[in-house]
Amino acid sequence: MAEENVPADEFIEDNEVDEVVAEDQNSMQQDFDEEGEGNDDGFQGENLVDMVPDMSVQGFFEHKDSVFTVAINKSNPNMCASGGGDDLAYIWDRTNGERLHTLTGHTDSIIAIEWSFDGEYIATGGMDSQIRVWKMSTGCEFIAALETSDEVIWISWHPKGHFLAAGCNDGSVWMWSLPSGKVANVFYSHTAPCNAGAFIPPGVGKRLATVDDMGTAIVWNPASGEAEVRLTSDDQRFDPGNEETAGGWVCFTSNKEGNVLFLGGSSGKVKVVNLNSRTILASLETQTESVEKIALCPVLPIFACASVDGTVALYDSASLKFRKSLPHSEAVVSCEFIPNSPYLLTACGDCIIRKWDIRTGQLLAEISGHQEPILCMAVAPDGKQVISGSDDKTVLVFNCE
């Protein structure tokens, strides 16, 4: 249903464009193995922490519980935001760790925080079924409390307009127009938790893609609310599960034209789908557990898939063939490419961020400082620093050049 007429020109149809990529040369990967030993004196964890060097150059330490989400303002990259299990979000300065604003009002954990494309607004999404929005140009003025029907799982700003979308645990997807806070559309079709969503193409946002825990992917027309593409696990070729367990879609990304989706499943499968022809280009089964993040390299035809099985799988986005696996000691919760480079950052449950050269698979650096598992990270627009939130209640800033 729609409670407000959304200008059609906010979602202009693009010409369909085929993905054109060139293959990069194959290369060898440098394997590594890291093993930590504890003492039998009852203080293994504390002694291990003492052994881990703190390489952070700055940090934010006011959270009282795990930090689940972080974001960097692209319009003012020194301005960062974080939200966590203490029901609070903060805006702070990554150059000195100073708290700039405290964002209150949630009654349960904040699991998503995002800046609008121009940095004018910041939104937080919580397990209390609420999204709260603040306006930065008026001194971080609170402007809207947006109610949903269930726990919020994700939020996504339109890349060119002040429209905010969100997906919920009951499968509903909502879209609002800001600053009015009026509902622009509600999309009811998912029958399971809507695990991820984003406007595509990334820089245009003419459509809204969403995926759920039952293996359904839908591409919506945001203005009309109509489903333009619907792919379900009823088609066995599209099923994200395996012979032992059912599965759903956990994450996805799209190519820059928005006509190809790369989807990561809870059973470790990755599917590549052409939205124009509704065809499955590849079903990739290198990994054995949930794929938490998929990232496309900005300078080479390669994409990376981070998995709970402790690997990051690299694939050629032209041939869709497996290239190599980057091993980690524990679950990999996220991966991000440094802008305009072939360098990949991975965040792992072993408290370490790793930097890789995907041309060779070489491990370039291990960046430590957290004392408990990393839960989220964000890379600065200039690629010089990364911030990460952790179960240890801190957000740390690291150099990654």
Walk me through the structure:
The protein has 401 residues and is mainly β. The protein has a domain at 55-188: Methylamine Dehydrogenase, Chain H (7 Propeller), CATH 2.130.10.10. The protein is 2% helix and 45% strand. The chain has one helix at 44-51, and strands at residues 58-60, 67-72, 79-84, 89-93, 99-103, 110-115, 121-126, 130-135, 141-147, 152-157, 163-168, 173-177, 182-187, 194-200, 207-212, 217-220, 227-231, 249-254, 260-265, 270-274, 279-284, 291-296, 302-307, 311-316, 322-327, 332-337, 343-348, 353-357, 362-367, 374-379, 385-390, 395-399. It has a four-stranded antiparallel sheet, with no helix packed on it. A hairpin with a 6-residue loop joins strand 2 (67-72) and strand 3 (79-84). The chain is globular, with a radius of gyration of 21 Å. The termini are far apart. Residues 1-44 are annotated as: Disordered. It holds the Pfam family WD40. InterPro entries: WD40/YVTN_repeat-like_dom_sf, WD40_repeat_dom_sf, WD40_rpt, WD_repeat_multifunction. One of its GO terms (cellular component) is cytoplasm. It is found in: Cytoplasm.
